[in-house]
Amino acid sequence: MRIKGAIIRTARKQKRLSQVTLAAGICTQGTVSNIENKNVCDSLEILDAICKRLNLSLESVLDDNDEKKLTSLLNHVEELCNTFRHKEAYSLLKETSINVADFQNKELEVRWFYFMGITNLLGYDNTTDGLFYFYRADELGDSNSVYAILSVNSLGIVYEMANELDKAQIYYEKSIDMLKKMTVKMPIEATKIFFNTAKFYSLIKHYDTAYDLASQGMNLNRSYQSLYMLDLLAYETAFNDFMRSTEITRPDFSSAKVFATFNNNQNLLNVIENDEKTLTR
């Protein structure tokens, strides 16, 4: 994809960072050099991580107008999906006149397929189209594509919804293994993978594994100083900690309630209220 490398270079120098320092934990110094001097970057994940380190918006450094529009659209779609408004997100995807197949940006295409899959699946229970889009995203993505990994994780959701739990577990485990093999800093979007997988292991009563996965999601948030899905992760951590330990008499949902109140997550607050009445020893 075409990049406005001068913006990256100026922001880096203003923060008095060398190319090596900027690249640390994200990519190679050569990749930063290509971005700044050749105005190209082959990975949206790498570019996004660099922008976050420099406090720049992704849209501000993209040179292609249609790519900027599509990136902005997908950012909006992601916000809607994070608040479980999947039908609204699907409508936005279907209404756009931008053809993702016209771009050379593979990661943007992977992200598009993932959101087409998840909005079909969770918005309309459309497993047929969901499977198609998730498999396409997995085929196109590379080992550092968080949206390809999210698509594999979502295959677990498909089979969980069909009550084929053995198949679901295969894909949940595969997605966690793929996260461990990433060679760039794990992006904050991986939080969804930890949450979805923790929730599944809680469902099948593997409470120690569920607790560990939810804790990893919280630690990822801490590394970004983020509140991304923290209310849901805090709930999973507290619930599974209670379920795995006979010494705990009541689950401690205090953190989950604080984050859920901050996020105005009334559904979770209702779940917590019910659990506090019923989960005692």
From TrEMBL:
Domain HTH cro/C1-type: 8-61
Pfam families: HTH_3
SMART domains with a match to the protein in the record: HTH_XRE
Cleaved signal peptide residues: none
Gene3D superfamilies in the record: Tetratricopeptide repeat domain
GO MF entries: DNA binding
Protein name as catalogued: HTH cro/C1-type domain-containing protein
Source species: Enterococcus caccae ATCC BAA-1240
